[in-house]
Amino acid sequence: MKQRTIKAVFMRGGTSKGLFMHRSDLPEDASMRDALILAAMGSPDPFERQLDGMGGGISSLSKIMIVDRSTRPGVDIEYVFGQVSVDEAVIHYQGNCGNLTSAVAAFAVNEGLVNPKDGLVKLRMLSLNTGTIVGATLGVKESEAVVEGNFVVDGVSGSGALIQLDFLNPAGAVCGKLLPTGMPVDVLEVQGVGGVSTTIMDAGTLVVFVNAEALRLSGRERPTEIQADKPMMAKLEAIRVEAAVRIGAARCTSRVSHLSPSKLSISLVASTEGQAAAESETIRHNEADIYVQSISMGVPHRAIPVGVAMCTAVAAKVEGTVVNHLIRRNVDGRTIQIAHPAGLCPVDAVVSNTDGWHVDSIAASRTARRLMSGLVYAPESRVCLPL
Question: What is the CA radius of gyration of the chain?
Fold first, then answer.
């Protein structure tokens, strides 16, 4: 049986990996495009391993980017991010992936979508998912993105060339405003849990923050420990569901189960004071401002999505939020050091409070590298496209 092929580049960006494709190499019909991508990634897979495709069986390894040169004034590159479900025939196009956004810049240079001179290059990229402009600064040498460097991303072995990302006016990309309910804290009545104080924030991505202690957790549990605790995972999903109802994403809880976890995620947060650091040696406990355990696509993340880190940094600077209450040090005008299961993630957020809270920009640093380029094969029987 013949197989379909897609020209693609397999790239790492930050703590994620994904399949990168030119928009011109994909079918224009959305259903045909998605069928081809799902088959190439090995989804859906009831065994949740994606062994028959390019996916890696977890959310951070099951992603795609569709990239194109932009014709819009002041924009160099535009891209669409897709979170490919591991066990369902679904690609979620809500939100953005901050980790892979760094790789978009490198892909654009390597694939000739831009033609910069050697040296530090600044690109303006448009996320078509969110409408947010992202500035990317990276090194270029001999028409290739520089790979070697001394910058370390906790959760990634080795070091690489720094790629600086600046997300401009990122608040409200999903719901239209930074605080979807207008409140820094919302008490949600959750069946089986009771009243839970949360912060629902839309900055970089849409997140529901919950103090780990409210659920009798330390905030230092390993991701595998949380995932193995089925009653706790059910409680976290119930809180996410109630948050979705509160912001109007669904009229009732029975309809929220279909709400994309990539559109609304939940994160546990904990103070860094008075507790022992996590077992990872990369977590420099005395440097951290806040500890975060993100639940990504219904699974505890082994590091932290950049979008969640961005949202956390903003929440740290907005008075009255669950995150802000847990930070004991002055955060004005400085980088927020976010501890996660794999180490630290520093994020800069420029936040002001003039006639309401406003986010001017959020900056994060990543590394990225091209891992493979060529053709990806997809079984014709699973694609169902005419040859």
Answer: 20
